[in-house]
Amino acid sequence: MNKDQDDSFEYRSVTTLKGVGPAVAGKLAKLDIHNVQDVLFHLPLRYEDRTRIVPIGSLRPGQQAVIEGVIEHSEVKYGGRRVRGRNGRSLLCYLSDGTGGIVLRFFHFNARQQANLGSGVRIRCFGEVRAGARELEIAHPEYRRMFENSVTAVEDKLTPVYPKTDGVHQTLLRNLATQVLTQLETGAVKDWLPESIRVQYSFPDLPTAIRTVHQPPPDVSLHQIEERRHPAQRRLVFEELLAHQLSLMQLRKRIQARKAQRLLLTSDAYRKFVSGLDFELTRSQQKVTAEILHDMSNATPMLRLLQGDVGSGKTVVAACAVLAAVVNGKQAAVMAPTEILALQHYENFCRWFDQDVYKCVLLTGKHKGKARAQRLEVIASGAAQIVIGTHALFQDEVEFKHLVLAVVDEQHRFGVHQRLALQQKGQRQNARTPGEVPHQLIMTATPIPRSLAMTVYADLDYSAIDELPRGRKPVSTVVVSNSRRQEVIDRVANACKHGEQAYWVCTLIDESEVLQCQAAEDAAAQLTEELHDLNIGLVHGRMKQAEKTAAVESFRQTQTDLLVATTVIEVGVDVPNASLMVIENAERLGLAQLHQLRGRVGRGSRKSVCVLMYHVPLSAQGKQRLAILRETSSGFVVAEKDLEMRGPGEVLGTRQTGLLELRIADIVREQAMLPEIKQAAEIVMRNHLDCVQPLIRRWLGTAERYGAV
Ligand code: ADP
Ligand code: MG
Known about the structure:
Number of helices: 24
Bound molecules: adenosine-5'-diphosphate, magnesium ion
Oligomer: single chain
Mean pLDDT: 85
Distance between the termini: 16 Å
Radius of gyration: 30 Å
Strand content: 15-25%
Helix content: 25-40%
Shape: globular
CATH architecture of the largest domain: 3-Layer(aba) Sandwich
CATH class of the largest domain: Alpha Beta
Low-confidence stretches: 647-658, 703-709
Number of strands: 21
CATH superfamily of the largest domain: P-loop containing nucleotide triphosphate hydrolases
């Protein structure tokens, strides 16, 4: 069903609600609120309790409360502790209710307000209490004048405070929620969570859950609801994760209902290939290769995720899979997230495959005009069996002769949607063999706990490389304050003098890319001045693609001693001779990212060092993060600690990492729930097929893209 044509209540446009004209609709669209259902699922971040009047004598700093009392005396004060208002004036009203007194402080006020807030006036106000110089005070409370004998009711529900409002007033959002909630009473929104599951987990029904979350009755535990442990919230989170699980399972089912080429690789051909490598595969590499080759020997499409820590050697495993495709006379594609990585893979594959027999071709956004046309031609004719590239590979004009394997490297860089787009692309490629889809191998170095992986990659089978190649010396990590920068620079100079190569990584998060690149340029200039004996390269995100690639190439060819970089080098860059990495402002990066960066060194046989430089003062969390990195080199340990440390309440959830696009659930926080979600999804698939589509649609919306195969 087309979303636009659907007239059921929940899919009606917000413009059908009172108070929403085109201008407001435009603002709401920025919050991703387009229809009634989006209003329902735009959940409050916290709540204010305006359901009762709190005796002033019982107030504590930090508390938000409604109070009511009589102004005993008001005055305008000049200067004072914080001079913020016009001319440093503030209006102070001393309010008392018989149980105690409090100061209301206004930095901005006009003559009329001043006149209205004179002594003897009774007001009710709401605000956050804080400790003033001598007594408690509230700055700029919302207030209302109360007249003799009038009985004005307090709110009967907790007041929701919505997150990110981007110029939309809280009152408008509250008003919209109220309008929509009124309709809920009439059964306008159907509950698609099967009753057996609802009962099993003691979840409330959907209207109750939504109402409770938007307008909690005064008797709910505010603490429970703010911790997101209330059954109403649990239910919504559960339903959302369930919907994602279902969509991925359905996708898998649809793909596996298709056919793929059986690709047999004889052990002779395999042995010949690996004996041509200049190293021996680790046991772990052999094990996952066997799993992959087994999948590919079936006529059911392979859908496999290969996880392995940075430097564990995933690329060569991918090459073995590619071998199975090409010895059968077919084509394989390898997609990398950046040009730097694509080029690096291309060079490796050219080395590993005899170019007279199995031709490799590189296709990136850089190839234009004739170069591009030539490449498209050899891909379409089948003259090139191994096609390596970036997103450029998946544009419509790229046609394969017979694509039977698609490898996606560093999948976490792409997100679910791109992965799915790729699957669709892969299948449209083979005009000659309609109905057949390529085998798929997805590789990622972001090690996430198994339960998370099972959800995020619910449509994939799972293999893991759990050892590093022999002979690797663990990277020793040192943590130093920025005040020792000069020592660090000397260390770089010394290392490079002895034929080593080093990275100098400049980081700035939360600030614009422009600033980040500027920081790298400044650092490069400064280091060039101080270390004139060295060849210093620079790579950052605002350089032209060709310049970036050239900078990394020159480093790889050892023409550059020191490569100053932004975090663009985080993913995949493999220069085994580099053995020293300095990361500036390391405290600003997350654990996972630091681990990824550090993985750029320790790839050769030389003992490598990673210097994490920080600025004081270092927060307790920052200190802990750096200490973890100093103590462990295992990506899996780092990932677990990362999740532990983020914990509840931390804003930086999986939502932002693009693994799944979730509206309300935080997959990291909900980890413990995931096995139950998987079970529930299996039950729904088995016994409640009619609920599958509506649930997917409700939570993934137009992202029915997940199911579209
Ligand atoms: P990642 O898993 O991070 O993608 P790569 O595939 O880039 O790792 O491999 C890292 C480095 O280790 C490369 O230089 C690669 O050639 C090398 N390598 C891979 N497997 C082995 C092995 N079994 N023994 C020694 N070196 C290996
Ligand atoms: Mg890699």
